[in-house]
Design brief:
With 297 residues, this protein is an alpha+beta fold. The protein has a single domain, classed as Double-stranded beta-helix (4-Layer Sandwich). The protein is 21% helix and 26% strand. It is built from seven helices and 16 strands. The strands form four sheets. Strands 1-2-3-4-14-6-16-5 form an eight-stranded mixed sheet, covered by helices on one side. The chain has a three-stranded antiparallel sheet with strand order 13-7-15. A hairpin with a 5-residue loop joins strand 2 and strand 3.
């Protein structure tokens, strides 16, 4: 999972910019070299990154030093920004930055590996994000990796009977149950019942069609998917468990070993991810910018 192999330089759609790009052994992910994201990149480079992102839903760009302003400026080149609903975890000065830090870096509430479950970001909203850009400010010397799952490949390798079972069927997503679990575990700030009530249930296709590649991907996750619409509880749980187990097979997984300064961009429309444990005596602090998407179909 994640061993690199060399690949030739990728040509941008414009034909006017190239990226020095190395694909990993898992076709889900690739690393881009030679970019300084703190600079104002020209539009041809942004187009080349966008093209690479569609081919490799997880992009790694190492060795970056980004202020919140520059991270937001870079993320904004790919679309409107989407603010997280857990306001305690937002950067006090830059609320479009989600702070994931076990030390509460920058004044946000501490978050002790709250994403340690499989999920795609904010699927509990009616219009979930298209992508996320995460910057590693400080990371432990070992562990604390992030796993990414290729949900397009997971869909494509389903047996035909399961595809027929889920095509055209929706699932219900909600943040309330997940937040209660994390709140009880002490990894999210306490909220009142009234505050929790704002997280309503939304319905999304189980097999989502990517709006740009037109490829189908499994679009349920253990973090935020509550049930399959129209099925009794036992049938719903069995189907979701089957899809989850299939989606996290080793063949679909890229494991990212963090280094300080890493930037990872992932396409939320066709991936899910999961943080892994680490020694909490070490600081693990990251800034995430999230890019608004479109209604899943």
């Amino acid at each position: 999972m994640g061993n690199a192999k060399m690949k030739s330089m990728e040509q941008a759609r414009t034909g006017e910019a190239t990226l020095d790009l190395v694909a990993f052994s898992n076709p889900l992910a690739a690393e881009i070299f030679g970019l300084d994201l703190s600079l104002q990149l020209n539009e041809n480079i942004i187009c080349a990154i966008r093209d690479a992102w569609l081919q490799y839903p997880v992009l790694v760009i190492r060795g970056q030093t980004l202020t919140p302003e520059r991270q937001l400026a870079f993320a904004g080149r790919f679309g409107a920004l989407q603010r997280h609903t857990v306001t305690e975890l937002l950067h006090p000065e830059y609320p479009d930055i989600l702070v994931l830090s076990n030390t509460g870096r920058g004044g946000a509430a501490p978050s002790d590996n709250g994403g340690a479950y499989w999920h795609s970001d904010i699927t509990y909203e009616d219009i979930p994000p298209m992508g996320s850009i995460l910057h590693g400010l400080k990371v432990p010397p070992t562990d604390g990796d992030t796993l990414f799952a290729d949900m397009t490949a997971a869909y494509e390798t389903l047996d035909q009977a399961t595809k027929s079972q889920i095509d055209g069927v929706n699932a219900i997503h909600s943040y309330r149950h997940r937040y209660q679990t994390m709140m009880d575990a002490g990894v999210r700030p306490q909220k009142t019942n009234e505050e929790m009530a704002r997280w309503i249930e939304v319905s999304h296709p189980i097999a989502r069609t990517h709006p740009e590649t037109q490829k189908k991907a499994i679009y349920v996750n253990e973090g935020f998917t509550a049930r399959v619409d129209g099925l009794v509880a036992e049938e719903s749980s069995a189907l979701l468990a089957k899809l989850y187990a299939h989606s996290i097979s080793d063949q679909f997984i890229y494991r990212h070993h963090w280094q300080t300064g890493d930037v990872i961009m992932w396409d939320n429309r066709c991936t899910m991810h999961c943080a892994t444990p680490y020694d909490p005596s070490y600081e693990r602090s990251m800034h995430r910018a999230t890019i608004r998407g479109s209604r899943p179909i």
